[in-house]
Amino acid sequence: MKNLSLAAIIAKNKLQSDEAWLVALKIYVRNPVTGAVVEVIRVVNNVETTTILGESYEPFPFSISMTEQMNELPTLSLTIQDQTQVVQSYMNTYGGGIGFDVDLIVVRATTAASTNSEPELIEFFRVIRSSVANYVVNWSLGAENPLRQQFPARRQDSEQCGFKFKDSSCAYVGGVGTCDLTLEGPNGCRVKGNVANYGGYPGIITKS
Per residue in 99-136, pLDDT tens? Predict the structure, then answer.
């Protein structure tokens, strides 16, 4: 991770500044079974395609908020307005997006187009929880940590289905094209009449 330069910090914290800051996401779509990266999605909170370190990032609406608790790694909440369902299609195919790697990149707009200019900040995260409702994707991003490696490979979760949507285990054959991989969600198993094949463990009591 590269620390923000002093000049960047000053510009960022001014109430009014001519310095435009861009936040970009580099999302590694990972197959949860094989662990292989099958696709890389590059998006930026800008109105036009932006080049960062020689790679093109497409304009895409998203927002980020961060929470920090004592003695815990920071968690980011990422909300993506996925009107074209591009992100959702990958989530439906690959375990709801759990385990996708996300690089969060902060760059000044004045230097973004230069292939020789490094971003001011790069942080590395992994999707640890996800949901979808009304074309809005919500991800919780946790810092990648070896101690968080999942074992066994299939986690018993009361709120998240572990099956790939419409595969043999899911067994759903209806006409709905997406699923939020929940039991009681607005686009989950119950509304589809597929409760018997839900791949989560609703009997598990989760402490708040």
Answer: 999 988 888 776 655 554 567 778 888 999 999 988 99
Structure-token pair, residue 126? 């992994």
* 100/205 Cα distance (integer angstroms): 26
- Model pTM greater than 0.85? no
**Contacts for 14 with CB less than 8 Å, ≥ 6 apart:** none
**Of 3, 26, 24, 2, the residue nearest 126 (C-alpha):** 26
Q: Is 127 helix (H, G, I), strand (E, B) or coil?
A: strand
Distance between CA atoms of 26 and 102, rounded to whole angstroms? 6
Contact 162, 200 (CB under 8 A): yes
The structure tokens listed for 153 are 């490979």
Q: Copy the structure tokens of residue 129.
A: 């929880």
Burial 12-36 (b: 16+ CB within 10 A, else e): eeeeeeeeebbbbbbbbbbebeeee
The per-type count for the chain, helices as H runs and strands as E runs, is: 3, 9
CA distances from 86 to 11, 42, 72, 108, 153 (A): 34, 12, 32, 27, 26
Q: What are 103's two structure tokens?
A: 């690089």
| Residues in contact with 208: Cβ distance below 8 Å, sequence separation at least 6, in sequence order | none
Q: Tens digit of pLDDT for each residue in 32-46?
A: 888 888 899 999 988
Widest CA span of the chain, in angstroms? 58
Q: For residues 29 and 101, what is the distance between their CA atoms, to the nearest angstrom?
A: 7
